[in-house]
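Researcher: Re-running this chain for the archive, since the previous output was lost when a drive failed. Same request as before.
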Amino acid sequence: MKPVIIESSEQMKTLAAQLEDAKLIAVDTEFFRETSYYPQLALVQIATDSIVACIDPLVFDAKDALKQILLDETITKIFHSCSQDLEVLYYYLGQAPATIYDTQIANALLTDFHQIGYASLVENELGVSLDKSQTRTNWLQRPLTEKQIQYAGDDVFFLYQLQLKLDKRLRETGRKSWFEEESETLNNCGNFQLATDKLWRRVKGASRLPRNKLAVVQAIAIWREQLAQKNDKTRRRILGDDIINNLAYRQPENISTLDQTITSKYNFTEEEKKQLLLVIKQATQSPEASWPDNRFDTLDAEQKLLLKKLQKIVSDCAEELTIASTVLCPKKDLETLILHFQNQQDPPLPQINAVQGWRYRCIGQNLLETIKQQP
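Model: Regenerated C-alpha cells:
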C-alpha cells in the first residue's frame, strides 16, 4: 500500500477523522540521536488495515494531533521492540503512549526467537522480504525521497498484519494472558528519565576500579549526565569514558593538572572546570558507605552443581513450551535465587520474573522446590 505523507495541519485533521473509530493502529517512528542527548523525532508512521500515513513533524507542528491519537488509552498501539519508540515519543509529547502491543514480545511467547528483528519476523510470518536499503538513512534530511517514504510506510503496514496473526496464535495457544502480564510493564512506564544512582555502569572500564576510585567515577558520571542534558549532546561528546577513568586515578587538584588530563578536545568553560574539580574533591572525601558496590557474589562448588540442575529444568520446560530458555528464566536470575536462599530457609522471594505470574506457574514453583530440597 502506498503511504500518504502528512505535511500540514489540514492533512492531519483529515487523518485524525479517518482514525476516529480505530481501536487498533500500528505505530513506528524514525529519529536521529547520533550527536544529541535527546532523540530527535523525524517521522511518525501510523497504519490500519486501510490507511498508511507518514506524519512529518519537522514541517508542521503535529504534537497536539498526535497526542489525541497516541495518548488515547482506548486505542491499542502496535509496536515492534517498542522501548526506543516510546522514549522518542515521550520526549516529543511529554508523555509516553500507553495500551501497547509489542509484536517482539508476542513472538517471544510463541517461538524460541527471543529478540527477533522486525524484518526477520515479517519474513518468517508473512513471507515478505523488506527493503533494508534505508536502515542507515538520515531521517532529518528534507525532502524525503519516495524510497524513504515507502520504506517507512512498509514498516507499519506489515506491523498491522503481524499483530493480527500473532494475536490469533496467542489466543489459540492459551498464552494471551501471558502476553497481557508482560505488557503491564510497558503500559506502566511513567517516564524515561535515567536513574543516576548507577551511572558508573555506563563508564566503560570502570567496573574494574577499586570502590574509592569508583566513587569518583560515579560523581563525574552524574556531572557529565547533567551537562549532556543541558547542552543536548551525547555523553561521550561531553567527556570520554577513558578520561573519566583517568580523572578517577589521578584526581587533579587544580585547573592546570585537570587540563593535562582532559586535553583541548573538550571545550569546557572555566566555571565548568571548577565544578568538575569540586565534584572530584567531594567524591574523594565521601564516606565508604556511599561508595558504589562493584563486588559480586560467586557460587561455590555445590551451588554450581545446583545451578546446572536448575538450568536443565529451565531448558526442558522451555523446549516443551517451544520458547527461549532466557524468556523463562535467564542464568543470572537462577544465580540470584540460589544466593537468595543461601543463608535463609524461607526468605521473602526476590523480585525476579521467574517467581511471578505465568512463569511461576510454568517453572518457578519447580525451581523453588528444587532449591529447598538441597541439603
